[in-house]
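Homework-ish question, so no full write-ups if that breaks the rules, but can someone show me the predicted structure for this set?
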Amino acid sequence: MANYMYEEKEGFDGKKKKVLSGTFDEGKPDTRYDWKEKLATREERIKYLKTALRYWYSNEWYGSEKNKQGG
Amino acid sequence: MSEGKIKTVDRATEELIEKAVKENIKTVFSRSEEVKPCPIGIEESCCKICAMGPCRLPRTKKDTKKDRIGVCGATIDTVVARNFARKVAAGVAAHCDHAREVAETFLKTAQGEAQGFTIKDEVKLLAVALDFNIEVEGRDINDIAIELGEKVLREFGKQKGELVYVNKAPKKRQEIWRRYAVVPRGIDREVVEVMHRTHMGVDQDYRHILLQTTRCALADGWGGSMISTDLQDIMFGTPVPVLGSINLGVLKEDEVNMVVHGHEPLLPELLVTASREPEIRKLAEKVGAKGINLAGMCCSANEVLMRHGIPCAGNFLQQELAIITGAVELMTVDVQCEMQGLMGVAECFHTKLITTSDRAKIEGAEHIEFHPENGLDTARRILRLAIENYPNRRHAVYIPNHKQDTVVGFSHETINYLLGGLFRASYRPLNDNIINGRIRGVAGVVGCNNVRTPHDSGHLTMIKELIKNDVLVLTTGCAAMACGKAGLLTPEAAKEYAGSGLQEVCEAVGIPPVLHMGACVDNSRILVAATAMVKEGGLGDDLSDLPAAGAAPEWMSEKALAIGHYFVASGIFTVFGTTWPTLGSDRVTEHLFKDYEDMFKGMWAYEPDPVKAAHLMIEHIDKKRKALGIDKARERVLFDMAMRRALG
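A: Not a homework solution, just the prediction itself:
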């Protein structure tokens, strides 16, 4: 906890509060973070499409568009 | 050049304009003072489609009620609508011919005939294959890619039916398009039909001309541009956030500077690969350079910046200025937005100007044509030319000391990931924060630079006003680069410029208040992201229900009109600045600005003042919030057991 930075902000009651500041690492990244690399197999990739991009690749989602169609 | 008139809000640009004036080098900035806009052409009140004219039909100051009719009897409404239609068709043709080049290269890549290209993103390949109803289970990726390439190429020459990507749009939107018979059948067919209908003596009802214009524009947004984006992602990788730097200060005095300028990322990708080869780097050292500095310009820059972090030298109005630094050994240009004036500037320096597309040559420039079969060899040849040219610098080099860190690469897939992680990816947090009012709405601010507006000022003024009012901004093209140079594309910008609600969300997710989504063909990413918001639920069931708006405050190209028109036809209120090309006809303007809202639930507006334009967008966003019933903060009530029982 000792290494954390804090800053003062005004709360909803108008009083000053001490809140946790940024917890990110200092410096700049020298590589890009390609999150898709975590999907190693064809099965995982298809599963990702059916969950993350369910709006187009799955029937299991519940948006207002879908509800109006009785889905 | 006249003193006192502000030409740019970018310091690096200002310094190089001063250098150009001092050295008597003509640039777009000086030429714009010598050539004033034609007063008849600016409102498109001139018909020159047959040899009985040209018929000039400007408004007369004396008799404003007088009918303005050409020799053939064409009304001013027909003339203005035809001119507008042809501009949109030219813009659509540009994006879609880009798409064709990409699709042909994609197919050759899948067939193993494109040197240096591979399928990098299997996830995206599977997604697009599913869009095109291609069986993916148990099949080899090249096999899937070949079938996809063949099917995609058929989209250009299809004569009937509907473009495949139309199915990605919300269902209600598809119904609206079908009601007005504007669903594109085939990409090329819609462009050809606009050209036919606007030929002398064919379609002479402005409303009917504009319907075909709409169908043509949709063939870009939900056709050509989407094809380009998707196939480029498959071949080069879907963008993820990457740190880059931007502005003319990215050029390096002690390295071989090579600028890739244009739009198609095919050759630029191979130049990135080749520039990292040890042999090429050794060659650079041999001529006394410390290395090779590849930099981008215009949308080619956006492409290599968001996929590789290659530095971006600047946007449209900075292309000649990059050469004026005296530090550019070679500039490649392919298609779109390349000024012929580049040649005259290059002749003042040692810079080699190389045209690389079989569709575009510039008189005086060297032509080295890119073909995918030997693409990597071509890239190496061009890099060697740049290296060999390094000792030929004959001017004192002046590189402005201005560059800015920037975070780019927010594809719609990555936004989805950032909002929910890999296994709970979702637009839900964005929708929730719009519903609870932390985020007021979303705006797409895109488009070019135009020398008739102080460089970058329209974009920056508008975008700062929007984010100050808690509107999350999605940006592409030259607008995105303007934001990068001004420091708006870093997470820290939220603290400095955004309203408190947007600031909270940006801090929580770790994103900038302005998201760089790519090049101008990547406006299709905005359409898909907006569709995901609709499908996620809670914000209506059509794109027109979203608290969203679009703008191009510094537009200049026909492509911008095509983009604007497919946004309007997709249900988005869209404001253009600088000038507007239908002002010659009140009825055409009224039709696009008002009737289109009844028909397509999206409409055009024109407002040259970027702050007023931002307020028009905010008003529209508020109107949509009210229609959704999320315009007022509601008190949160914690239900006790008795209240819960009462619900049942």
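Now go work out the reasoning yourself. Hint: The CA atoms of residues 2 and 56 of chain A lie 47 Å apart.
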